Amino acid sequence: MAALFGTKCLALLETEAQAEEIHVYTRALMAYAFTLPPNAKTLHSLSEEDDTIHWERPEKQKKTLDLPYYHPRAPSAEIEMTSYVLLAYMAKEPSPSQEELLTATAIVKWLTNQQNPNEDSLLHRYDTVVALQALCQYRTITYSKDGVDARVTLSSGDVALTKFHVDSTNSLLLQCKDLPSVPGDYTAEVTGCIFMQTSLRYNIQPPQEEAPFKLIVQTVPQNCTGPKAHQTFDIAFNISYTGQRMVSNMAIAQINMLSGYIPLKSTVKLRTEIATTQVLLYLEEVSGAGELGFSFTVELETPIQGLKPALVKVYDYYETDDFAIVEYIAPCSTGGV
């Protein structure tokens, strides 16, 4: 009975897959679904471009920023659907062909470029899980018993700054080196095949365009009234959706802590991730019909002279380029919110 039900479901999917108006995200999922049984017709409906290969939604326009060396990460949805296509290639029976492995390698190059430079993740938990599953499948299929033997020489002009050697004994070990000056001209000479990444940190927020969120932030109290305000205060904020849909996707409110202040965990009531420098609130959706209001308490841990404002940012979980930003400052600093 289960096998018959599964066959009927696949037959229905095959019929739907012939429709030209199917979204590319749906096609990516179908590609993976059709490789689990011995059927892979939908793979040929997907497109590829440039030196690396990935899939984009046609309705989502690329945003360019005039920041040197800035490489924006792809939206979470595009990482996810590209990962599903890689899984589809890796699931081919009895094994992927040489041509399919070359395509998969180009996909892997793109996926690894989306990794956060200071973390082992991509943008969010789900796209990270799917991407890691796909990359692990690729690693399993392309694994060689001969191991890896790669060497990298990093130079500036005629001066060799450092040398990296990757073999089977240290292939899982992260090796890194700080560049002595930026900007600068550097050359990397590589033998073998490894994953090499450079990261340049900015303390600059990309310019905010037409934000699909309205964000209002204030401190309670707003002014420095009484001795308690020097030690503790509440951060209160209201969020509403102003985009083209009735409600937003899942959204995240990212509240950066002021230097010297920490959040009181007991006062944060939503699904959260809390660190000493940041609070993340997960919002299932934000409506345009009304505002969502939240607040929590922070307290002074270490007094700081010349305190600078901190940011509250609300952004779409899947479209991180859709965001709103507001600054706030402690009520007993030189200014208000």
Structure explained in plain terms:
The protein is of the alpha+beta class and 337 residues long. Helices cover 23% and strands 24% of the residues. It has helices at 2-17, 24-35, 76-90, 98-113, 125-142; strands at residues 149-156, 159-167, 187-191, 213-220, 232-241, 251-256, 261-263, 272-274, 278-283, 292-300, 310-316, 323-328. Strands 8-9-6-11-12 form a five-stranded antiparallel beta sheet, with no helix packed on it. A four-stranded antiparallel beta sheet has the order 4-5-10-7, with no helix packed on it. A three-stranded antiparallel beta sheet has the order 2-1-3, with no helix packed on it. Helix 3 packs antiparallel against helix 4 (98-113) and helix 3 packs parallel to helix 5. The longest helix has 18 residues, at 125-142. The protein is globular and about 70 Å long. The termini are far apart. Residues 1-6 and 37-45 have low confidence and may be disordered. This is Alpha-macroglobulin receptor-binding domain-containing protein. Residues 248-328 form the Alpha-macroglobulin receptor-binding domain. InterPro entries: A-macroglobulin_rcpt-bd, A-macroglobulin_rcpt-bd_sf, A2M/Complement_sys, Alpha-macroglobulin_TED, Terpenoid_cyclase/PrenylTrfase.
| Residue runs with pLDDT of under 50 for 5 or more positions | 1-6, 37-45
State the assembly state of the protein chains.
single chain
Shape: globular
Beta-strand proportion: 15-25%
Helix content: 10-25%
Straight-line distance between termini: 63 Å
Number of strands: 12
Order of helices and strands: HHHHHEEEEEEEEEEEE
**Helical stretch tally:** 5
**Sequence of strands across the biggest β-sheet:** 8-9-6-11-12
Structural class category: alpha+beta
Mean pLDDT: 79
Major beta sheet summary: 5 strands, antiparallel
What is the CA-atom radius of gyration, in angstroms? Answer: 24 Å
